[in-house]
Amino acid sequence: MGEPYHIKPPVIVIGGGGHAKVLISTLILLGRKVLGFVDPKTSLPPILGISTLGDDQAISLHDPDKVHLVNGVGTTGISVLRRQIYQKFRKTYYNFETVIHPSAIIALDVEIADGVQIMAGAIVQPGSRLGANAIINTGVRVDHDCSIEAHAHLAPGVTLSGGVLIAEGSFVGTGASIIHGISVGPNSIVGAGAVVIRNVPAGVTVAGVPARVMAAKNKTK
Ligand code: JB3
Question: Whose CA is nearest to atom 20 of ligand 1?
């Protein structure tokens, strides 16, 4: 007898806002069973027909072996909360589902860690690696041999040329472009529409065309 067909477990989405809505829409398109979402705002209305299960306590009613989590708390900037949510539930042995929209184009050798979220229309070229809990948002283009580290977020329409490093926890704003071989240090922010032609140090905010340092120390606490 071969291995039983691997049935993907049902999921619970953490968060009930805009990012959760995009994820729930994608999960429904993927045919996944969404048990509900959890949010401290326990009276939020259903999202695309999916109801709230209450606050995060509701997750503990489900066995970590029988349900996967989806981190529906997004971020525009350095997201401490999104990272804390991921780490908190990983510590209690829950698994985070990797969510990839059916219209995304991902090369066969791309390394994708747990909890990565790749939205509609995104393209990830060969040799690239995506770290845990990273968001590759709508229509993002990641070219060959890029490294997107854990908890990083590429906002809609970002374009990375080949060999770009986006280090842990960094945020690249809507429509920004980063040329070949550039490194963006950890916990840094690239402003929307920026064109990055020089390496970005850790913990700073850059913006403009070409991008220049705007704030020398991003808060990460
Ligand atoms: O830029 C794009 C395309 N999307 C943005 C996304 C990446 O990040 C979006 O525009 C927003 O900027 C943001 O989406 P998000 O995180 O859904 O933002 P918001 O609509 O404010 O919803 C956040 C939800 O998380 C709220 O309902 C909060 O109550 C909830 N929340 C906050 N802390 C939490 C917690 N939910 C749970 N389960 N646990 C928490 O600790």
Answer: 17
